[in-house]
Amino acid sequence: MAKPRGRYAKGVAKRQEILTAALDVIAERGCRRATNREIAERVGLSQAGLLHYFSSREEMYVEVLRARDQRDSAEYWTPHAGIETLLEIMDHNAQVPGLVQLYVEYSAEASIPGHPAHAFFVERYDWIAGRLAHGLRNERRAGVLGPGVDIHTAVELLLATADGVQAHWLVDRSIDMAGEVRAVWDLIRRCSHL
Fold first, then answer.
1. Cα Rg for the chain, rounded, in angstroms?
2. 184 with 90: CB under 8 angstroms?
């Protein structure tokens, strides 16, 4: 694929710069306290200039979530990734509460017909469920996960736990998100050998 050239390449680069700045601002301040002004200032734009690159704040925030997933994917998801990868990401999420807040809020709002995040969350769920299912099949081949549990059901339980515990963690930061997901994984593993 050819690299973007000229003015288009500069626009792509500026958009990426904005997303990087927005990731930092939202991680630090949360999605409700992050302002377009602060994001724009970090990249040398006006607020109007910022919205030249995104049709709305909602679209920018969806792209921030996409950029977060791309970053996390590059850092954590290897071809042999599985449950331990999910647990590492949950531990990492405790360091970026603003991004957890954005994820939780937008995942709920994505259920609203026509919300800008709807397609993103449909695609994201399919992607992460596929990655996790692959990892659980590897666990089954290694004898860690027995035949007594359906892989699809295990994936659903783990992802529901991960999403639910993130929402709970936003209210009670004493919760060990990775520990809660690990407890469900341990239960699934034990049941799979019955």
1. 19
2. no
Q: What is the pLDDT of residues 6-40, one digit of tens each?
A: 566 788 899 999 999 999 999 989 888 999 999 99
* Residue (of 127, 123, 190) closest to 154 by Cα position: 190
CA 65 vs. chain centroid, Å, equals: 6
Distance CA 65, CA 50 (A): 17
Residue 21 Cα distances to 25, 108, 116, 127, 181, angstroms = 6, 24, 21, 25, 30
DSSP, residue by residue, 118-149? HHHHHHHHHHHHHHHHHHHHHHHHTTSS-TTS
In this structure, how many other beta carbons lie within 10 angstroms of the beta carbon of residue 114? 5
The dihedral formed by the CA atoms of 168, 99, 106 and 160, expressed in degrees to the nearest 10: -40
Q: What is the largest CA-CA distance in the chain?
A: 62
pTM above the 0.90 mark?
no
Which of 21, 27, 161 lies closest to 93 in space, CA to CA? Answer: 27
